[in-house]
Amino acid sequence: MWVRGGTPLSGELRVYPAKNSALKLMAASLLSADPITLLEVPRLRDVDVMLELLSHLGTRYAWEGRTLHLHTPEITNTVAPYELVSKMRASFNLLGALVARAGEGTVPLPGGCTFGPRPVDQHLKALRALGAEVTEDSGYFTARRVRPLSGRVVFDMPTLGGTEQALLATALGGEATLILTAQEPEIEDLCRFLAAMGAEVRGIGSSILHIKGAKRLNGVSYRIIPDRVEAATFLLAAAATRGRITLTDVEPLHLDALLDKLTQAGHRLEVGPDWIHLEATPDPKPFNIEAREYPGFVTDMQPLAVGYLAAAQGNALVSDRVYPDRFTNVPELLRMGGDLTLKDRVLSINGKKLHGATVKATDIRAGAGLVIAALAAEGESRIEGVQYLERGYEQLPERLRSLGAHVGLVTDEPVLAVAAD
Ligand SMILES: CC(=O)N[C@H]1[C@@H](OP(=O)(O)OP(=O)(O)OC[C@H]2O[C@@H](n3ccc(=O)[nH]c3=O)[C@H](O)[C@@H]2O)O[C@H](CO)[C@@H](O)[C@@H]1O
Ligand SMILES: C=C(OP(=O)(O)O)C(=O)O
Predict the structure, then answer these.
(1) What's phi and psi for 115, nearest 5 deg?
(2) Alpha-carbon span 154 to 213, nearest angstrom
(3) In the annotation, is 113 catalytic?
(4) How do residues 215-268 score in pLDDT, each as one tens digit?
(5) Ligand 1, CB within 6 Å, residue ranges
(6) Domain 19-223 carries which CATH code?
(7) Looking at this predicted complex, what is its ipTM?
(8) 2-16+226-420, superfamily in CATH?
């Protein structure tokens, strides 16, 4: 992707539904033999991968515009193939859904963004605590239901995927008390989805969840929550370019920690029930970040904020309690003239005017952080690894262009090549 920086973003943009919720609701669709309809599903690479996985397991699907119809009359295969599972983390949640619906499932260790160790021990701990037999063979995990899945799961730390695994495993005929669950909005969305299908879920939004599964889960038509990380990306891009933006179809409550930082920086914010307006200050103050679990400043927004802070003024300190090594875009920001020093897992940023450069995205949010920095930089940048951005952002160049940015895919825009000549 090429980006010619320096233009303040300006305009209105609709936020699309959350990738990380859509993927888990798609996995949950395996729990019912009835048709499931997901409204307004983001058209992303990860969604396509999950559809391939579901098809392999027995799901028939059809798109109607952005509405996705899913139907799994029966599970025809209980093994998820490595080629697909290795493409993203969310695929590991198929294990819980398969064991609940088919009594057995086999899923290899998942792939996904690599920014330090991402173990699955809590997923396995949860399944075992619920009475499943879990075995491992050459990187493939098999879970078997030998009795109805039920019990208490005490997580060692709040884990999004681990909590989702336990919810999926018990929603069909099981029962569980889950302690120290993740409280991320995607968990709440999955709980509400399962409740709409007929499961009983108490404690939604808290760190202790009680789930009583139904013997049979019914089909539903469901609207996914807005993507808070996408919203954060556009807000930070507008702030970095000293622009103004109105986001619609957004849930401001999911963005409290970021909105607080942006206000602290001096940007003017107005917030409505489902919209946010940001007018950037020409003279922003820096802010420090300690990324942590929701409702704290979430780790997925941390690399975005690093892109913003690198191109802003002043000194900032950034650390990440969830993924302490999630600083994969730092070496790339140095290529753009950034002044960033990483020591003992604390990133020290001396914000300054950046210049364009050829840089590489190595994961979704690191890549998006580079886009933010490139939009604020002087001159042209080329961001390689666009396939990572496409995992998590729908039509990113087109939507940035609608806000006045000069960006495009290298394949369909000769501008950078001409400029480089
Ligand atoms: C597809 C998806 O939804 N991905 C999100 C999900 O990933 P994911 O669900 O993988 O992240 P978790 O919430 O599970 O991870 C939180 C912390 O728990 C640790 N942990 C997790 C599971 C486990 O079995 N053992 C263990 O030690 C992790 O290393 C990490 O330090 O939540 C992350 C944290 O909000 C986000 O960055 C990802 O974008
Ligand atoms: C880290 C992410 O995805 P995954 O967990 O699939 O790597 C993400 O969406 O930012």
Answers:
(1) -140, 50
(2) 19
(3) yes
(4) 999 999 999 999 999 999 999 999 999 999 999 999 999 999 999 999 999 999
(5) 20, 23, 89-90, 118-123, 157, 159-162, 182, 184, 298-300, 322-323
(6) 3.65.10.10
(7) 0.99
(8) Enolpyruvate transferase domain (3.65.10.10)
